[in-house]
Amino acid sequence: MPWRRRGRGRLLRVPGRSLFTRGEGGWQPSQVLTSPSILVFRGQDLTGRALVPVVKKGDLVRPGTVLAGPQDAPEDGCLFSPVAGKVVDAGFRPAPDTGGSGLVPFVAIQPVAEAGAEKQGTNRRAGTTPVGDRLRHACRLAGVDPEPLTTAGIIVFNGCDPDEGVFGRRALLHERRADVAAGVTAILSGPGAPGNRQGWLAIAEGTLSATELAALRRDLLPAEVLLVPAGYPAGRPEMLAARFSNAAIVGVEIAAAVGRSLQTFLPPVDVLVSIGGDAVARPGTYRVPIGAPVSALLEAAGVDYARLRLLVRGGYLAGEALPLEDAYISLGDLGYLALGDAFLEASPGVGVCLHCGRCVAICPEGLAPAVLGRLARLHRWEEAARQGAEKCYACGLCAYACPARLPLVQLIRLAQHELSRRKPEKASEENGRQTGIASSSNGKASPTGKRPREQQVAVASCHAEVRLGNR
């Protein structure tokens, strides 16, 4: 399937930000990070839904033990222990990506050899368990809801790195190609899949050599390979979803986790994460245990804490700043940046809009980010919604192109947050208004003191005033 350009934006390559290096043998293998003394698992699934811990301090766990599950059925499990050990703490703590304003459940485990518990033996049942049950259980072990994967007519497995400076998916395609192929094949051909299901693996051009690409095409059957132009944001899930009708977009890290769990009947143990930035001496990709503190990754990469000014989860354009404390590796992590003065000094402070139009020219959705940012500053949320604020997926291209370095992404995200917060309030008001009209249908006066016909006219007049006021 040929790639089609869409929108008014252009693809971007950030100069001087690449960690992708090829030695004499091609791709340089990831370095292995030893397991730290304490692993902390965040009680949330991949969609951000909070889970309920089912273990307590002092419990002994083994690989595959349920740590937390959904609120309606915690024992079903969505979070499993990848190691044997002892629970040293369980409770709630501030979430780094919410600025400390929200609390999320967590479970801390001290890994030991066997923790006095029987070794995990569920992998012995792999040969006798039905294929459908194996796939569903493997999805649960990987923290994935199996329903969308088994019912979608089109599934696009995204092998493109999500941002400039992130190389976790590229490392997966080089080092765990067999796991990716096993997961893709099982998901596409699993029981209950539609007969006309289509599967695609999106890969950026230049990620694999011709020989590697040919081998991948053979292993991926019945999926096909879709070559995406190298450059940001061509590999963003929003860009891929715009080219397929009603398609499910799945990262290859999820497919690899499902493929590994299918073979071992155990939850994923580690992830491939890239680390870059001018504050680390050994940038590259690392094989990091899930639950390890990000500080352990930084120290393995030779971080200079005297130079470190900003820790970013993600890449240069769409990454999120994190505090160093309470930051731990999870299954969905693909890369981090440790930035120092050399990078921050190259970015001047906030200025004023020059009305140059660069943000409009580069936006892949054809929005006017400067206008949206101004409306967010003025708290004009409804007008920002009419200007398309909810269509923005925060790719960061506008902020990169802005010569005044305006915080456009943060302002638009603020508008999106306010709009999502106001939706339940507006729905409640509308339901109350409709209930008031319905309750007066018997001809009696409503709580407003008006008869039904009078109340309908009053509501219509109110709406007319709102429309006039918004012009």
Explain what this protein looks like in three dimensions:
The chain is α/β, with parallel strands linked by helices and about 475 residues long. It has four domains: about 1-30 and about 130-340, Rossmann fold (3-Layer(aba) Sandwich), CATH 3.40.50; about 35-115, no CATH class; about 350-440, no CATH class; about 445-470. It has helices at about 130-140, 145-150, 170-175, 175-190, 210-220, 235-240, 250-265, 295-300, 340-345, 360, 370-375, 380-385, 395-400, 410-440, 450-470; strands spanning about 20-25, 25, 30, 40, 50-55, 60, 65-70, 80, 85-95, 105-110, 155-160, 200-205, 225-230, 245-250, 270-275, 285-290, 310-315, 320, 335-340. A six-stranded mixed β-sheet has the order 3-16-15-19-17-18. A four-stranded antiparallel β-sheet has the order 4-10-9-6, with no helix packed on it. A four-stranded parallel β-sheet has the order 13-12-11-14. Strand 15 (about 270-275) and strand 16 (about 285-290) form a beta hairpin. The longest helix is centred in the C-terminal third of the chain and has 32 residues, at about 410-440. It is globular and about 60 Å long. Mean pLDDT is about 80; it is low at about 1-10, about 15-25, about 115-125 and about 440-470.
